[in-house]
Amino acid sequence: MQIRHFLSPSDLSEAELDRLLTLASDIEENPDAYAHVCDRKKLATLFYEPSTRTRLSFEAAMQNLGGTVIGFSDASQSSATKGESVSDTIRIISCYADICAMRHPKEGAPMVAAQKSRIPVINAGDGGHQHPTQTLTDLLTIRKLKGRLDHLTIGMCGDLKFGRTVHSLINAMIVYPGVSFVLISPKELRVPDYIRKNVLQDHGIPFEEVSNLEEALPKLDLLYMTRVQRERFFNEEEYIRMKDSYILDRKKMELAPQDMLVMHPLPRVNEISVDVDDDPRAVYFKQVQYGVYARMALIMTLLGLDPKSKLS
Amino acid sequence: MLNISGLEEGIVLDHIKAGMSTLVFESLGLEKLNTEVAIIRNAKSQKMGRKDIIKIAGGLDQVDLDILGYLDHNITVNIIKDSVIVEKRRLKLPARIYNVIKCKNPRCITSIERGIPQVFELADAENCTYRCIYCEEKYDR
Q: How many independent structural domains does chain A possess?
């Protein structure tokens, strides 16, 4: 079987993605049926920078499948401190494990690893570039909780310029019919030109760019929140003027439809007020749970353990 | 008028933008060749006003057309045999280029990983835009 890697959301076709999300849903409904599918398999978590949440999600996913986990959670624990290259490290890890998840501060590191690897490589985040398992998580959350991925008006709010999860989700959603976007951000933090032109305009996707969250809320099927960081602003005055506009609180939620979902890639700082947490529309903690199912389905798929997958 | 003797067998790179011949010479590594190489700068051109020309004795295998296409796909490659032009080859933007340009993104893995090639892919032919295959950063010429 040819080794398949997962470096960016586009590594899966629409049909493969659909199958993976279906598998993830089945895992959620029948966890016992999958409790031993990875018996005697090992996942290596190669985390060159700390990311506790993502690493634990991968570890939980592998353990839920009956597999075991080896790895490191910080570059200081790896041979990178001795100057070992990513290419050499992956050749060695290929002898120890059946699959690996790599988080690296340098963009493209998982691709370099994939070129030399004898085991599937999963990109668990490479700098500001890609974080494709977050995208799988987001898609699974939307599909489970909205019941569909098509015909949705999606609000993206906050830092749309530097937020890689936002770019990945837009890229992933444009294949579904009837999807439109409301991009809510300060002028300085609007989506980059290539997303606006090459992704949205070139594919004929309806979208609008606005700066007012309250005005956008009533028309949304889901709101994807991200954090507006102080350091992204050109001046302090502008930051102070704008920061509260992008904080979602209970009062603003009154403007939103009753079935609108609020999602967030987490960690949250103050962009979603804690008084929203109890609102049934706030699904960001459910999203974390779906992240485990999505990663379980991905591990199974890449290892060829899903009998129905075309990848097998 | 300056007179450069004709080539019996070789390649003439014509329609190089005036002033670009040094870059073309260096990028193609022509200094490593043992054959005759002539650079003509600021030659008169009906089409371009002024242009540069490079004449290289010997076969086409001495020139990487992908590098040339990336540098300027409007350069004409004339192939000379028995002192006559037997073929005029038009260049196109290569789909991928290897080890011609270097990624400028300090966050790219190529900034620290030893021994990996610098690879760029054509992302937008209309605007001659290339992106690093590792970090997808656009290369600004």
A: 2
